[in-house]
């Protein structure tokens, strides 16, 4: 049957039809693939959320958090267990190994959770299947003034959120702000005394008069009637008419001793936007793994339906943050860079190949390889995004087709000229094309395999950096495979169709002049080879010894998401209302900047699952106008700096953090801190941890480059502690349960029943009028009933005092933790952390108490992990490439000679980073790893052709010059199209270009230096390293 290449030429129409089929399947895959700006880099985790209303953090930690942590010990594939305990809420996070299936992990956790004995009133559940990257839309529920905050929140919870949850792909929708509706029985203690009624009497009466019953079925002739007792409360009037007790023959009703009616729940959150008063916000969360663009389209459609048909007049849903903007902006950046790169590639092909037909033939590699990659991306669940399709260098993809096409053009052009000189007679196009492809088939395949090998360090990345960059490497490998298939099978087939009568090469003056100048320069360098070698060695030593150490290091470049995310922590114990007033001032300051489009502030925490924030905390999203409209600030960093300076002038003692929403939530979830650097202390005593953290803060604040230095967790806050005295309780006949129930119900407003209003349900609470319990003394005067029914003041059986308690308790792997954190500006992370660690070891480590541990974490931790990975995997990859070269050439010297291309390529990449003031990062490391395989390709072509010329019998110097000249055009075309393919990405400044730019800079300028040095240095080194060659006798005789 012959070789696959011969078969493809004989059956070329079938192969071309197969190529068309691949393109059609690629178009189908494009429509099915999810599209997102960045990959989901959050860890695979499961959250156990337990609400325990009215309980302090210390009690919840003891009775809820620790039992759940103990139950989760031994869950398979769990790497870390973290927990956060705050007033009324416990969050336990289990972080699983990468690759763990989501629902398998949730099932393991649910199995353990069912065995946990929780106290009465505590309710545990698993958080929705989303991720920190899952926040895709925020909206405000506005009113023209006719609908109050309570009714707006009720509409949000009972009309808007249920409709949005029906959108496929929505995991959850959480409410923030507004007044939650309940039915309150608000009691004046004087009335209780007047009618001799206790809170316990009222609770018992409500529960006894709010019940339904079922009486089976009553048969009546041929009919059956369902018997049902309808005694559930359905209105405030029914609630107020409940009989409590009889005093002196007079019935006492709830309405006699209390105010009964709708009232707001105790608030945990306040939301405001721009200069308006309070409002209601909704946050839409994406189910993990769903297509955000499709889900957002469904959400927007649902919002339009709600606005048009379901919401009352004057109430509207107004989205103000839509992740589609980030997706669209990022894809616009990608599309602009890719399309411009493709245009430049085609222009270069036209310039060097002369004939549009051959340039077009080779350029078809680009859409084919892209569609081929989309098919494999669809099969392996890789979404379209900035670091998948956006990181493809189509110039590199066409390199194989360039080499094959250029050799076909050269050989077919020679055959056409010979045929014309011989006289009439057709050119045997298939035979010439087959011979031309065979001539370069082996170096093309081996070179492409080495390019793929260069991506192995990226494919082996783990954790955040793996989730971020592996899709890029996989997509690039897929596209390289598609480009190789096209080059070996479809380019020859198309050439036989397009050039049936031969090929007429255009020999332009530019090409001739270029070859003449190159030959002259090469002969001069060969004659002066030792000074040239010494010069190159000196450049390598200078770059490696002086330039590289000055670059600095960081984990990732700044990922611009668009909005600014501001976090402000006011003194512990600051009330929700006071914090909201501070938030109003912050919003006004932000809106002073014309670059700001909106400012929305969240105070406290929502009742949703992952926000253990106290009332003294503000989180603010600041939306920005398009950068093209800015006048005062050339970039976002300077705008953030000016805003930070202005806010710190207004609130000099407040701890501010300036970041972005997605990266803040992802790093907090994955690393335990959203800061560039965190110093985490663990141990048994919170006081000791706080002391260590404060000392570390003082140290970090004096290290140059530190900003936003503070403690990650909030400090102690005042608590009113009611401690029953068991001896006094026994003396007065009062049970501890009676004291606890008074605190739960009368002071805490714990629900005692449910009122049904159609499909809606609202809690019924019995609580004392806030004005009557405004001080510890007033609380002490509250009455309890002893076993004989006699009133006993609470102060007689309990100690009431104010003391500091924990605001939030954080734990990791069974130990309490506290983290000192800081961000790093105007300095690379690596040098900052190194200096901070040296000073810590000298000043704080010696006094670290026994039983306490310290761990350095944050973005720095990711940098260290990526550095360790590259230091192990890159040498292994270079060794693999060396073995492949040795096998390809069957010569140790030739393999070493080609391997020199790697440091030669690194020179240009490192110098470009230095000139552009870019530090070494995971992104640049990925670019260097990709550069290794790419830079090898040209060296393989050059060395193989020179060796073939020597084996043909030419003298050494002439063989070097002629071999280099014959590969000049192919190498230049391959290198220039590869450079131009990523040049737009290396210069891009749009949203989403931050990760691309360092990666593309390394590859573009690394290829530039590699090409120059391959064309001039590799031939010279060949002359130095290969002075003798044993020519096989068979070739010599021929």
Structural account:
There is one protein chain. Strands 1, 2, 3, 4, 20, 21, 28, 29 and 30 form a nine-stranded antiparallel sheet that branches. Strands 5, 6, 13, 14, 15, 16, 17, 18 and 19 form a nine-stranded antiparallel sheet that branches. 54% of the residues lie in helices and 20% in strands. The chain folds into five domains: 179 residues, Multidrug efflux transporter AcrB transmembrane domain (Multidrug efflux transporter AcrB transmembrane fold); 91 residues, Alpha-Beta Plaits (2-Layer Sandwich), CATH 3.30.70; 162 residues, Multidrug efflux transporter AcrB TolC docking domain, DN and DC subdomains (2-Layer Sandwich), CATH 3.30.2090.10; 231 residues, Multidrug efflux transporter AcrB transmembrane domain (Multidrug efflux transporter AcrB transmembrane fold), CATH 1.20.1640; 97 residues, Alpha-Beta Plaits. The chain is α+β, with helices and mostly antiparallel strands. The chain has 36 helices and 30 strands.
Structural class: alpha+beta
CATH architectural category of the largest domain: Up-down Bundle
Sequence stretches where pLDDT stays below 50 over 5 or more residues: 1029-1038
Shape call = elongated
- Mind summarizing the main beta sheet? 9 strands, antiparallel
Could you please say which CATH topology of the largest domain applies here? Multidrug efflux transporter AcrB transmembrane fold
Count of helical segments?
36
Overall pLDDT level: 84
Going by CATH, the homologous superfamily of the largest domain would be Multidrug efflux transporter AcrB transmembrane domain
Termini separation comes to: 29 Å
* Fraction of helical residues: 40-55%
What does the radius of gyration come to?
37 Å
- Strand content range: 15-25%
How many domains make up the 3D coordinates?
Answer: 5
Q: Any idea of the CATH class of the largest domain?
A: Mainly Alpha
Strand runs, count: 30
């Amino acid at each position: 049957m012959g070789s696959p290449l011969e078969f493809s030429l004989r059956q070329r129409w079938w192969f071309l039809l197969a190529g068309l089929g691949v393109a059609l399947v690629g178009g189908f895959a494009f429509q099915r693939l999810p599209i997102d700006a960045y990959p989901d880099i959050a860890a695979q985790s499961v959250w156990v959320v337990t609400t325990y209303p009215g309980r302090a953090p210390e009690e919840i930690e003891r009775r809820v958090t620790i039992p759940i942590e103990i139950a989760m010990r031994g869950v398979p594939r769990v790497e870390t267990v973290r927990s956060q305990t705050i007033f009324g809420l416990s969050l336990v996070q289990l972080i699983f190994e990468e690759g763990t299936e989501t629902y398998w992990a949730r099932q393991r956790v649910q199995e353990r959770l069912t065995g946990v004995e929780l106290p009465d009133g505590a309710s545990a559940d698993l958080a929705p299947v989303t991720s920190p990257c899952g926040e895709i839309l925020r909206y405000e529920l506005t009113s023209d003034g006719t609908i109050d905050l309570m009714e707006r929140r009720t509409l949000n919870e009972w009309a808007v959120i249920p409709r949005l949850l029906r959108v496929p792909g929505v995991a959850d929708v959480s409410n923030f702000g507004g007044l939650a509706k309940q039915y309150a029985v608000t009691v004046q203690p004087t009335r209780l005394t007047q009618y001799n009624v206790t809170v316990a009497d009222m609770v018992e009466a409500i529960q006894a008069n709010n019940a339904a019953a079922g009486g089976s079925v009553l048969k009546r002739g041929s009919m059956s009637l369902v018997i049902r007792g309808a005694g559930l409360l359905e209105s405030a009037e029914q609630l107020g008419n409940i009989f409590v007790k009889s005093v002196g023959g007079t019935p006492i009703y709830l309405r006699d001793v209390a105010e009964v009616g709708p009232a707001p729940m105790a608030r945990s959150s306040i939301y405001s936007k721009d200069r308006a008063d309070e409002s209601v916000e909704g946050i839409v969360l994406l189910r993990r793994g769903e297509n955000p663009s499709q889900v957002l389209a469904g959400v927007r459609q649902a919002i339009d339906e709600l606005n048009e048909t379901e919401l009352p007049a004057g109430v509207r849903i107004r989205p103000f943050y839509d992740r589609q903007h980030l997706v669209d902006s990022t894809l616009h950046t990608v599309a602009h860079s890719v399309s411009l790169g493709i245009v430049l590639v085609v222009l270069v092909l036209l310039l060097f190949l002369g004939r549009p037909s051959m340039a077009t033939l080779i350029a078809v590699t680009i859409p084919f390889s892209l569609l081929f990659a989309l098919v494999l991306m669809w099969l392996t669940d890789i979404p379209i995004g900035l670091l998948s399709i956006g990181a493809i260098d189509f110039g590199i993809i066409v390199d194989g087709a360039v080499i094959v096409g250029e050799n076909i053009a050269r050989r077919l052009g020679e055959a056409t000229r010979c045929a014309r000189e011989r006289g009439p007679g057709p050119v045997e196009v298939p035979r010439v094309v087959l011979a031309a492809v065979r001539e370069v088939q082996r170096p093309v395949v081996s070179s492409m395999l080495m390019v793929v090998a260069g991506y192995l360090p990226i494919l082996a990345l783990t954790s955040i950096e793996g989730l971020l960059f592996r899709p890029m490497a996989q997509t690039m490998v897929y596209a390289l495979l598609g480009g190789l298939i096209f080059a070996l099978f479809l380019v020859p087939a198309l050439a036989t169709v397009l050039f049936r009568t031969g090929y007429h090469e255009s020999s332009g003056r530019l090409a001739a002049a270029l070859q003449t100048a190159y030959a002259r320069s090469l002969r001069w360098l060969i004659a002066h080879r030792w000074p040239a070698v010494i010069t190159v060695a000196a450049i390598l030593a200078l770059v490696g010894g002086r330039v590289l150490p000055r670059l600095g290091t960081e984990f990732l470049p700044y990922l611009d998401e668009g909005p600014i995310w501001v976090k402000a922590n006011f003194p512990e114990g600051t009330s929700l209302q006071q914090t909201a007033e501070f938030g109003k001032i912050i919003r006004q300051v932000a809106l002073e900047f014309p670059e700001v489009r909106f400012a929305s502030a969240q105070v406290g925490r929502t009742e949703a699952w992952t926000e253990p924030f106290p009332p003294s905390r503000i989180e603010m999203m600041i939306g920005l106008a398009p950068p093209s409209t800015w006048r005062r600030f050339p970039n976002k960093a300077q705008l953030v700096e000016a805003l930070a300076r202005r806010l710190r002038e207004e609130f000099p003692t407040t701890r501010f953090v300036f970041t972005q929403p997605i990266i803040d939530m992802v790093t907090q979830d994955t690393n335990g801190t959203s800061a560039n650097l965190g110093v985490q202390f663990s141990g048994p005593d919170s006081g000791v941890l706080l002391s260590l953290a404060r000392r570390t803060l003082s140290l970090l604040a004096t290290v140059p480059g530190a900003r936003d230095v503070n403690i990650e967790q909030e400090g102690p806050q005042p608590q009113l502690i009611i401690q029953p005295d068991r001896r006094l309780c026994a003396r007065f006949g009062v049970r501890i349960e009676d004291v606890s129930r008074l605190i739960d119900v009368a002071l805490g407003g714990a629900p005692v029943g449910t009122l049904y209003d159609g499909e809606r349900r609202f809690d019924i609470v019995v609580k004392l009028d806030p004005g009557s319990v405004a001080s510890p003394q007033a609380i002490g005067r509250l009455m309890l009933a002893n076993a004989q029914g006699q009133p006993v003041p609470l102060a007689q059986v309990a100690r009431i005092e104010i003391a500091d308690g924990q605001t939030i308790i954080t734990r990791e792997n069974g130990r309490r933790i506290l983290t000192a954190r800081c961000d790093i500006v105007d300095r690379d992370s690596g040098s900052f952390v190194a200096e901070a660690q040296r000073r810590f070891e000298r000043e704080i480590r010696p006094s670290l108490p026994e039983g306490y541990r310290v761990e350095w974490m944050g973005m720095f931790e990711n940098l260290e992990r990526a550095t360790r990975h590259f230091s192990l995997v890159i040498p292994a990859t270079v060794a693999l490439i060396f073995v492949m070269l040795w096998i390809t050439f069957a010569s140790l010297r030739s393999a070493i000679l080609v391997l020199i291309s790697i440091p030669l390529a690194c020179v240009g990449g490192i110098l470009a980073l230095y000139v552009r003031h870019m530090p070494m990062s995971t992104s640049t490391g990925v670019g260097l790893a990709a550069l290794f395989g790419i830079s090898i390709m040209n060296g393989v072509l050059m060395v193989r052709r020179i060796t073939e010329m020597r084996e043909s019998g030419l003298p050494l110097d002439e063989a070097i010059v002629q071999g280099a000249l014959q590969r000049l055009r192919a190498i230049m075309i391959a290198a220039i199209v590869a450079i131009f393919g990523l040049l737009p990405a290396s210069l891009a400044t749009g949203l989403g270009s931050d990760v691309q730019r360092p990666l593309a800079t390394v590859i573009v300028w690394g290829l530039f230096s590699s090409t120059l040095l391959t064309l001039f240095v590799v031939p010279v080194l060949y002359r130095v390293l290969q002075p003798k060659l044993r020519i096989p006798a068979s070739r010599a005789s021929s």
